[in-house]
Amino acid sequence: MAEGVRVVEELVRAGATLHGVLLAKSATASVRAVAVADLAAAHGVPRDIVSDAEFASAASTDTPQGVLAIAAVPDCPLGSLGAEALGRAVILDGLQDPGNVGTVIRTAAAFGVRTVVALPGTVEPWNAKVVRAAAGGHFHLQVTHASFPELADALRTAGVPLWAADASGRPVGTVERPPALALALGNEGGGLSDQVRRAATGFVALPMAPGIESLNVAVAGGILMHALFA
Amino acid sequence: MAEGVRVVEELVRAGATLHGVLLAKSATASVRAVAVADLAAAHGVPRDIVSDAEFASAASTDTPQGVLAIAAVPDCPLGSLGAEALGRAVILDGLQDPGNVGTVIRTAAAFGVRTVVALPGTVEPWNAKVVRAAAGGHFHLQVTHASFPELADALRTAGVPLWAADASGRPVGTVERPPALALALGNEGGGLSDQVRRAATGFVALPMAPGIESLNVAVAGGILMHALFA
Hints:
Two copies of one chain form a homodimer.
Chain A: E1 2-3, H1 5-13, E2 18-24, H2 31-42, E3 47-50, H3 52-58, E4 67-71, H4 83-86, E5 88-93, H5 98-110, E6 115-118, H6 128-133, E7 142-145, H7 148-158, E8 162-171, E9 181-186, H8 194-199, E10 202-205, H9 217-228
Helix pairs in contact in A: 1-2, 5-9
């Protein structure tokens, strides 16, 4: 389920398989909301207008803009991705906050990352809050799930190194950007999982002022993605 | 009001003027929550333990960790800041989302920004949600309010240039970092105000992949702060 005018616009634009679009009665006053529902309808997607109360019961976010779409999650197993797509990858290693994961996916799309892999323990990256925070990012890259052994296998086969964000790492400004890279981001509180920490061959960090414990993971990830992929 | 174990720890550590600390009954099982309340009490701050229901009615966030503090907002008018503090400044030009503003303040503190100025139209930077998202950042720099004429005046007097983040700007990777800088970040949807746009003498941007509309402002701000202040 994708909620909000912008996300639904992106879905339609990206040619996603849509099962239906729902418009709240009050949103029929919004030119942009009506336009995106009309566009979907023109592509043969069923469109329904429902009461605001019905819409609210279907929507999962606090501030629905009165438009949502039901779309198929693209089936994209890791094994189907080529070396090129794996060589510009971000690995979500146990991120828990939907807003953070959505923002990471949004940023990844902006900087030309091709693949986002959610490891077990990560919040479901197709959950509606994540999709909303990603503002359409899902439809510009591949978002997929994998176990750590599957991921490690795929990276080895493709010859792509695994790096990870960690306070113990080298300052990102001092590292040379590798031609292919999978970059892992760890859990908000606990950081990297043991398996990622053991398998990673490079660690990158962001030097911070004394007394500061950490950055928000979506911000840290954004700075690292800008340095390593943009 | 500051909520959460981490923020209250930072408050106590930073020597803020605390009026009181409130602990929920259930949080008395948390070693870290009890420790921070004890630490405050050792500094002469009144500490109360209340029922979980009473605590929930006092707290403003959805997931209180059972500890909050009431602290004085430091009085720090713009005119009292020296040229050095103004020369490492971030200007909030109408940011509306408390999470975004808190994250910007957290990142600013991490990269050695000295001053964060909220222009009119920005969400109150001392609001509890902002303070929580900033994870203690408020206590590592000055967070203050100013009208645009006051800000423009202070920057002129201190000889500090005003730059702004804008899609029309030069890619941040290509600009030379000025020795002193005030960097403005615009509203989530509408971007910069006309007055900031007119007064800014430099504009910086982050190049993005084709088809991507924008980044989250806290992420974009984080990348720019890392490039220009860290």
